[in-house]
Amino acid sequence: MNTQVMSAGATHTPDVVVIGGGTGGYSTALRAAALGLDVVLVERDKVGGTCLHRGCIPSKAMLHAAELVDGIVEARERWGVKATLDSVDWPALVATRDDIVARNHKGVEAHLAHAGVRVVRGSARLTGARTVRVEGVHTESALGVRDFAARRGIVLATGSRPRTLPGLVPDGRRVVTSDDALFAPGLPGSVLVLGGGAIGAEYASFHRSMGAEVTLVEAADRIVPLEDADVSRHLTRGLKKRGVDVQAGARLLDAEVLENGVRARVRTARGETRTVEAERLLVAVGRAPVTEGLDLSAAGLTTDERGFVAPADWSRLETAVPGVHVVGDLLPPPSLGLAHASFAEGMLVAETLAGLPSAPVDYAAVPRVTYSSPQTASVGLGEAEARARGHEVDVNTMLLTAVAKGMVHGQGGMVKVVAEAGGGQVLGVHLVGPNVSEMIAESQLIVGWDAQPSDVARHVHAHPTLSEAVGEVFLTLAGRGLHQQ
What we know:
Radius of gyration: 24 Å
Number of helices: 13
Oligomer: single chain
Shape: globular
């Protein structure tokens, strides 16, 4: 960590002050420092933010453990490998997960120190359009205060927190948020998951792999409602096949915390009232931006009705107050609230503050992934969305089980491509199946570079792989399909 001493009482004048050390904040700081700017990064907790400590990294570590459990079951039941699973050693799983997080945390700190970014621990609030006060700064003898005046600009990157529902008060044990679920004691025998977006689907998948009885409730008419309808359909099918009770078009009426669990009443899509009892209720109904304590009004800033800080200029992610920029979960749509989008936003803002030209973030070409089993991965427009925007489209879909490697994996899934009619540019690619998170990069380039099916069709995909299903779909759209007409 950078240990440069800053005198108490004085106002320090770095080029840039970044408030928040999550993915958006530290990527801004690293890129700005690499461009020669003097950067102060203020973080009241740990650098790395939600993604590293309570989100992406620990949850994916746990999902990998779930894959291993599923693999043992598949080995025995499908492949004749006489493997047995005695139990899951939860403390050992947690220890491995936490070790991965700790090593990544040290890595981020080392990158910041090597780049020359000054990390200040404390709570920041704005005192003007270019001024920040940080309170609770640790000094040798006490908690102190530091004042900063940014010569080039301030970057707001304070992230988000889990939302909950009226009347549901998380206690970290029986009623938990997605943050709490990582640190809740032990594995429940049953869980009711409220919210069928990416986070809810992932936690439903994880707990089912670990042997829990799982009910997944989503208020919209389908799970992962922001994805293409076929993605939702195939994911629903995959989760149901694994024993998850998926209730879409349903809503929670009320919930009661009992001594050994939770009893909830749910109104189903058919209008029936069901009582669901579970050891744990997991609330995964989205995330809310964190702006409390920032004193945005001191800089002339306001939030919208949803709590987001909207930029006046999306090409620079700059607010209506010149020199104040926003990255990450504070941004409203079309920003996606995804860590990898935050990296891109941070780099854009850093380059802008350094006076360099930088292309705006192309949100249509940012991939979206759900790490459940099966996984989903997509980029660009879904079919209904493309038609709603006035596009005439050609659509082609291929089941993964139509290729040999898909049969080997045996999880089902599909590839779907949406393109402008008549051989025009590719508007969206949508995948469901095993490990499709590792297949989406090709499609990201296809959509981002405005490729046409004929551009992709001339490239040969390896056989046997899951990715050859992607290649076959593009061959078909280009009029050259071998296994589809």
